[in-house]
Design goal:
It is a single chain. By secondary structure, the chain is an alpha/beta fold. The chain has a single domain, classed as 3-Layer(aba) Sandwich (Rossmann fold), CATH 3.40.50. The chain contains 5 helices and 9 strands; from the N terminus they run H-E-E-H-E-H-E-H-E-E-H-E-E-E. A 7-stranded mixed β-sheet has the order 5-4-3-6-7-9-8. Strands 1-2 form a two-stranded antiparallel sheet. Strand 1 and strand 2 form a beta hairpin. The longest helix is centred in the N-terminal third of the chain and has 20 residues.
Length: 175
């Protein structure tokens, strides 16, 4: 697993360098929110700490360039949903390049059925659509893992907080 993680980390480091070399930052307005990169080491450590393999399925809501989903695929059945066509294409490219078993869907996660996933992951910007919480109350059958400090669901119950290298991630369930 460590070897595969290092391959993922190296591939995304190359991608980030290429963006910077072309005068682009690893941040983008997708039309429905902002994408920015998650730090691979933080995500891998978080998934190890919380024993992600105990969950039968995982979905990254707004999966961006696919790095979180591909890291999750080292532990469990992993899916990602991304609205932006360029980021979705990058996810598919990286999946194929790395030969990992993950599924990526192009679309708006607010229009996808989330009921079959044991763990829902989001690394949100501060502009979370309030429709998300209603959707989670209707469809979520497991936990929500919120990476970062910007979003605290008002209708869900916090059950755990993970501090990984100073980045907080919190787990939420239906009340």
């Amino acid at each position: 697993m460590e070897k595969q993680f290092n391959e993922i980390k190296a591939a995304y480091a190359d991608f980030s360098r290429e963006l910077l070399k072309n005068g682009k930052l690893p941040i983008k307005d997708t039309g429905i929110g902002y994408w920015s990169i998650a730090v691979c080491d933080e995500i891998f450590a978080l998934f190890n700490r919380m024993n992600l393999s105990q969950y039968h399925s995982f979905v990254d809501l707004g999966s961006g360039d696919g790095r979180v989903t591909l890291i999750a695929s080292l532990f469990t059945k992993a899916h990602g949903i991304e609205f932006d066509p360029e980021l979705h294409a990058k996810s598919m490219e990286m999946k194929d390049k790395l030969g990992l078993d993950a599924q990526f869907y192009h679309g708006d996660f607010l229009k996808q059925d989330l009921s079959n996933y044991a763990l829902l992951f989001i690394h949100p910007d501060q502009h979370i659509n309030k429709k998300l919480e209603g959707k989670l109350l209707r469809e979520m059958n497991g936990k929500l893992l919120v990476h970062g400090p910007l979003y605290h669901p008002s209708t869900l119950k916090k059950t755990n907080v993970h501090d990984v290298f100073g980045m907080l991630s919190s787990e939420w369930i239906k009340p």
